[in-house]
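User: Structure tokens for this complex, please. No commentary.
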Amino acid sequence: MRVAVIGAGPAGISASLALVARSVHVTMLDEQPSAGGQIYRNLANVSAEQAQRLGSDYVIGKSLLKQLEQAIDNKILTSVSRASVWSVTEEKEVSWSIDGRSYCQKFDAIILATGSIERAMPIDGWTNPGVITVGAAQILIKTARYSPPSSVLVGSGPLFYLVACQMLEMGNPPKALLETQNNTDLLKAFIHLRPNLTSLLYLAKGLVMLAKLRFAGVKRIKAVRDVRIKSKGNAHIIEFSKVGTKRQIEAETVLLHAGVHPNIQITQALGLKHDWSQENHCFEPRTDKFGRTSLKNIFVAGDGIKILGADAAKISGKCAALALLADNGFLNAKADLSRPYRLHQKYVQIRKFLDVLYAPKDWYSCPTNNIVICRCEEVTAGKIREAVKIGCLGPNQLKAYSRCGMGNCQGRYCGNIVINLISEMVGQTPEETGYFRIRSPIKPVSLAEVANLETII
Amino acid sequence: MPKSFFYFEEKKIYFEQDMSVAAALLCAGVADFRQTQVLHKPRGPFCMMGACFDCLLVIDGMVNQQGCMRLAKQGIKVKRQTSNVLSEIN
Amino acid sequence: MSDEKKEADFAIIGGGIVGLSVAHGLLKQGCSVICIDGSDTDFRASRGNFGLVWVQGKGIRTPFYAAWTQNAARIYPDFVSELSQETGVQINYNQAGGYEYFTDPQTLSQRMDEYKQLKKALNGDYPYEFLSSSQIRAAEPMIGGETIGASFYPYDGHLNPLQLLKALASYCQKKGLSHYLGEEFKTADKKEGVFRIVTKKGLTISANKVVISAGLGAKKIGPLFGFLGLVSPQRGQILVTEKISPILNRPSVTIRQVDEGAIQIGDSQEKAGFNDNETQAQMSRIAQNAIKMMPKLAQLRLVRAWGSLRVMSPDGLPIYHQSHTMPGAFLITCHSGITLAATHSANLSLWLTGHKNAPELSRFSEDRFNA
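Assistant:
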């Protein structure tokens, strides 16, 4: 039996390890130069000292990477880096491209572990050079040991504070945090909190981070809204309002973050069922407890199903692997899969708290007409609203009328905003509005490569 | 060992191992990578993980290269991508 | 969503290119029109097509169809310019002629014979030409590889089909079309000469005449009005490359450069039921064929591919038919909705209103399948 695992983050690696432990051969494909996903990005290459600086949640990945390395050394696992997967079909054919050559292999089963992407925060000036995501800043820290100087972070969410702290540790504290959540959000979130040990530990970590930032004198401004960025070269003026008064601050780099949601590019392209998550305001692929999808032998694992973080992703990867093994007769029919699942559930409680606390705000998720929504084709919210007026009830007709979502990123960033805008105008639910029909190639690939696919048998 | 560099429009950009072209340029203070096709506005890296396609550059004559997905290599020639730069067929 | 009437002269079921072209013509005649249209995820040939306004190769053994198509192409410039003017939508129609390329001498000589006969059948009115291998290479420098010649037809052309759809919708709404969106057809009946149509969401509309232009939906809806509804899906797949500077002067039946600069390639005809996925095998084959014809395309990056379902009648020709059992109900279906849009507006609409200048369309009736 041959299994493809797509994505080499915590979910993908742990799924792969669970499979090779039962002597199932795995081909793990990942787009980055080394395994680890965004959470353990470049961890294999950074010094111990640098890893320590970036925190225990980063260092902890070392053991997973070590196990992966052993599996690779023992030749029971093929790990393919820098592989852009551009097509995955129902027939379980996977096509990927490396350095201008494409390969296609048919597998018996596939585990999709493609993680998350950051939610769009379309505000005036978000397309300016020098305005990047908080996640992008973290990638710069991890891969280039570079923390953008004189930065201002705008938004909210766990990653928001983590990266602020990492910048601090890099000796380059952010100039200020402009936080979009307010005290009412905090109150509402606490009402939702059903504390278990996992969530208390998580909260404690959060409080330590906040204390560090406070101790370092990083300015935190809460309940900001109507943020606009005016840029001149590398100088940015961030205008915002707080309790009705207008204020501004200068920065050399602006970092945006409005939480993360599953990267559903491949699950959508496969035509899998998705459900709208009221909690995280995004579509999530429909799976059973263990990551089984509506297609036999195609599984999803980790943040690609639901955002629960790296620790949960590891368990989720294992769950998917066990389900795969059980479905294909590699496990005793009576094997108990419930333990990892129960472990996984521990992470759900704190997520409910975080989802309420850091819920996206209407002022940017349903923005005014002048704001560019589709970064690729440069379509404004106004153009989208116009198209809805003449008959776009869903994102696909919208694509036809406005080119929104038709560019290189294929709606990865504008998708959710488009859903908000259409749903609001038509008066329908996000579920009724639906999502873009995603087609291959998921990443651009040369015509020559498509014509001369090297088939791996 | 001398530091590695690549060219960004005549300018030498030094980089260290494991850096992408986009990361090396951001480290050097270059955030404006291209001009957009519709509104002709400046645009630079956004996600740094291959998802947004905002960091497109001309690398060794090839247009539409994702700067964040290409590891920096000694001596490569990198250029801004202007809005009228379309792929040319040689 | 302009004027929300529930009673009108005409009710159109299906608001794609075909339905809206007919609505366009009816509104210009002064009729009141309602159109109901389905959901965002319906199979929509109007959204997945190649964007050619194309004459050559059509109706080779059915001159009346070739003539119908040729007439549509000839009146196209006026149709488009008026639409653009009224709506401000840029359709980017370019009618500078188009090619079909040949790699096989036998196919080429057969096609030469066919065009000669067709021209004769059309009393000399079929202005095609054939280009030699060197002539076609001079006209289209991208051509290389195995191409040995091409046919050329001067009224062939191409446009942005999505903009055409948008322009038609916005024109019709401006002229008073009651356009109900997201309303899937459920049932219909006819009482005292009036059709009553009910949608799944419970909307009820009534009209003196009904036009069914529901594409593949005609298979289900047609029989309720006494039609055979003989349509079936044929999948076509299309590849689109990155945008590049102009390299193709004219479109061909399988490769064209679109207004925004991308090269669009499509030449699959597959039986795949109601599956409109793109497939690995076809994508490879389409890419291979394109490279055979134009080797330099190999270096271009593919950014998108899609499959879409053509609406095919048993003989591939349009069906224009008034119901024998429920007069006043019309079935309109074809797989060349873009090409025929101009004539659907200008001429087919006259047939629907029973105008004295209406074209004679009996050869397009469903009765041909009863024999």
